[in-house]
Amino acid sequence: MSELIPSTTPIRAFEDHEDAVRAVAVFPDKRRMITGSDDNTLRLWDLETGVVLKKMEGHGSAVWTLTRSQNGKIIASADWKGEVIAWHGETGESITQPIKAHSNQITSVDFAPDGMVLATGSWDYTVKFWCTKTWQMQGEPIECGHIVLCVRYSPSGELLAIATDQNIQIYNPDTRECIAYCTGHTTIWRTRMSLAWTPDGKRLLSGGGDYILEWDTSTWQQIGHRWEGHTNTINAIAIHPAGTLVASASRDKHVHLWRLSDRRTIAVFQHSSYAEGITFSVDGNHILSGGHDNKISEWAILDITTARDACLTGDLSLAEELLTQEIHANANDFTSYANRSFVMARKHNWDNALEDAIKSLNIRPSLIGFISKGIALCGKGHVWEARVAFDVASMFTNQNSETNQFLLLIKAIALFNADQHEEAMLLIKDLDAACPNVDPLARRVVETYLCVQLGIKAFDSACHDEAADHFTAAVNSEAFSSKYIHVPYQDLTVLFGWDLKYLLLTTHQQRCQTFLSAGKHDEALEAHKYMMDAIDEIAQASCLDWSNGEFHVLCAANGNAALAASDYDRAIDIYSAVIDSNSASHVVFANRSKAKLGKMLWMDALLDAQKVIELDSLSYLGYNVKHAALHGAERYDEAIETFQTMLSMLDNAPDVQTRNLRQQYLRPSEVERAIRRVIDAQLDNAPLRVLHTTTGLLCDRETQMDAFKMSMLYKELVSSTIAHADKHIEHIEEVVKRYLKYAMLSHRWEGKEPLLHDIQGKCVYDSELDQVGGMTKLRSFCKTARDAGYNWAWSDTCCIDKSNNVEVQESVNSMFVWYHHSALTIVYLSDVPPSSKSDALATSAWNTRGWTVQEFIAPKEIKGATGIDRPAVAVFRPSMNSSREKLHWASTRITTRQEDIAYSLFGVLGVRLPVDYGEKQDKALGRLLQEIVARSGDITGLDWVGESSDFNSCLPASITSYKAPPCELPPLPEDDIQSSVSLLRQTGVADFASNFYTRLQNMSAPRFAAQRLHLPCIAFNVTEVRRRVGSPTPESYLTYGVKADGLHDLLITTGETLVKFWPARPIEQLFFLVRPWDRSLLELPDFTEFPEPSDYGDDTESEEDYGTPPSSPSDWSSGSPVKQGISDLESRALRLLVRLGQPFGAFLLAQQRSGEYKRIATDHDIIGQVQDVVSVGDLMDIRTIEIL
């Protein structure tokens, strides 16, 4: 036995690295060692001389992991930046240049047993395979779904174990088929989990968190309990070549040596800093460990195992025998004499203990020798001499504060055992000031143990109040902040035989017994409850006999009543008492779990749920409450897995009643399919790509979905929905909508703006983008959206790939839909200072831009101001009906690209058309207006003044032609219509009116074909066109007097030169003044029109909802509501004649050589009026005219 306190002095240290040593491996030749470090290098060492054979450079970042092939011919190393380098095993020369193997840090590498393949695992969630001949990737990577922390081939190479930060996955490396999953580690730091196979491949060990788990590779079930002993994260584990021992390196600065057979720690070695990489020597006689002390420490493990273990188990005779054998083998072994002195002291053989201590010091003065002498002298009652021995021992601590504290604690214990109680307790208290920078837990442990001893002495003396005070102080001590205090302080067990493992239980029982002996039954009951809450299940089992006699009065029925009344605290107390009395069924545990769920004590509820399963593994009840507890603890993966187990039990239940319970639940796969359908529906009306407001990265729809699936929100949704089949759709829609809701930016482009290629693959918050124009605006928008609770944000500057014509077209056609379905539109007004008054918003240039029309009227919430009337926005629906009003909205707007003035209206008008930048405004506007007429029949867009388009003369060349409000003539009052109808009845024109009515009723709708407008109209032949000289018109315009059959004379002002003619001077060219036919004058209901929804804010509308079925073209001159009460043809016909006699909006057509007609553009509306409808009936030509 080397030492009974942690060994702090390795037999050798290899020092040359300039930073932490992360990885260590030895070669089969037993002569060499390879190490990797945070100093970006590897070192090849001679194990015999300790000399560096080769400093291996090539990595650009910390070397995180390395491995060598089984034959030692190849070394592979990997670094923080995801690069791998292969090296020659003999020379240390690089075989390859750095290979960019992963997009993120590589955490682990391992060769297949035959050395033909290298496996690499990374934070990028993948494991990749590399051919060691070509160093090319072999096959497809394994997508693990979580951060990969370790990869290890089985000894046969038939399996590959992959440790992630969520589970352990077992794969067939040839087929890439997942064989099994293992879950057991609940606390894993994302960069640390280690795996090791036993040489026979029958066991797999995993080190994660501060413990090790053992797995049976035939069943992939956990074997035994956790291997506990470390107090911080385990960084690496290794298995002895013989498969009998295990070594682990930890951030607690210790290396533990474990015996595999019973999973016990048999030695501890102490680093001066975090321990990282670890391995056994080839012969198994040494451990080599690297750490943050920048060196590799070599520890001997030959003779430390059995004697120390014998001391820990209390077999002092065996320990004495083994140490005596060591002394006989080496008479100058001062350590063995000191250790045998400790054993003699444990046996209270003080004379022999002192004799061995003196022999140790005669061979070599040492720390361990003077400690053994001080303990022996205290045992003999020579307290003053013992103090001297301990004082001299302090000269051998190398001024190490931790070692010095441990020495003083041993001194305090020895003095206490020599009945120097006050001095011992005072010494411990003084240590708080003397060693302020050393972990105080050791002091608290010793103080608590000695306090318990004082309590026992007081109890034995019948001083119950004094004893209770000591025991109460002990149970409230910080020493019990960890239930594993016996592990880091095993040396106290070795030196003094302390039972620290059961110290907490012993102290609680002594306290309860003290209160009972004092007749304080209430305090005893409270102490018992406090004890059962504080100790673990194993400890609880050991004290059931005592508790059964004291707490049998409470029953489960009272607990059920409290649970039903939601009195969770009382229910928990009652159930706990029943359970503590060892009379509880699995139902009692289940009910206590439910009560704890009511208190949101998730982990406590989970423990009870596990107990239910343990007591009745065939009942679904335990899995039901376990799912609820795991869900509440946000351990959703485990919750879902547990729920699936419960569903299987319900499906296979022997009774029909239990099987019927299955109907109220859903399978996770059913929920996931439902979620995907809802996501698809939500994304159908969302932009093609958006910015993630938290990460600042640009994401497409698949990335959005992946981000959602990786989120805790998604897992929570699945876990919660499977248990509530009755309301799953509503819940899914609510959660998905909340996650995917996005904000849109409405702004005007100003000089250089960030484009997609500027930010693709970059974070918009990164300083590297500071020089990109417009980044301040974009960042402000993203931050504003993020602060408002939105995950996603869209800006037209960078969220559209403007080099992709298909995407541009899709975006232009869908933009209105995106704005409408956005949860928020944020307006950026660069020309309005923050301190401006609210009325200043209306003067912003934002209100003059073409695209901002749809950006204002589409959203349901907006921050900004506009010149468009709010009532118009409130009732707005995108459609082609009444297009003239919407064209008027845009008439004063401007766009950078002239075609955009038309494209920006696609969504407003519910139109989808190809986008063709370069076609110019008149053609873009012409195609839009052509589509409106062709699809809806709405011809209000023909109401304009200005210049004709080359696309079609009936359409304007510019959106500005709609600046003037629509031409609206006052309708004839209903009383006047009725009076006129009565007069007409008396004139006997009913037959004429009915015939005229029928002809108009049979007119076809207006249509466009090949840029030609086929316009149904009432045409009046123009008989005279004369120029009027001296009229007050601009120089570029001419005024003409126009006469037409059946109409009052007109004056027309136009920029075009017309051929003058009159009856005495006729021409062959025909001119018509036409009244576009308005079907609403027939006063028939339009049976094809669907009723408008009462609330356009319904977010469930799809893009198709925006389309409005074809309806009657509205007339801008004299349209009026349909009179649903007018049913007879004659009345409707007479009413039609009356209304045809009213003023109407008209335009002038001139025949072209090809026979078609062209509209003559004018600078104001042409208002015509029939002289007398009855007398000029034959002069009203009902026809469809083709207009170029």
UniProtKB/TrEMBL annotation:
Q: Where is this region: Disordered?
A: 1088-1124
Q: Which UniProt keywords apply?
A: Repeat, WD repeat
Q: Which Pfam families match?
A: HET (PF06985), WD40 (PF00400)
Q: Where would I find the Heterokaryon incompatibility domain in this sequence? A: 742-835
Each WD repeat occupies one of these ranges, namely 14-55, 56-97, 99-130, 227-268, 268-299
Which CDD domains did the record assign?
A: WD40
In this chain, composition skew of type Acidic residues spans 1095-1106
Q: Which PANTHER family match?
A: HET DOMAIN-CONTAINING PROTEIN
The protein in question is named: Heterokaryon incompatibility domain-containing protein
Q: Which organism is it from?
A: Suillus plorans
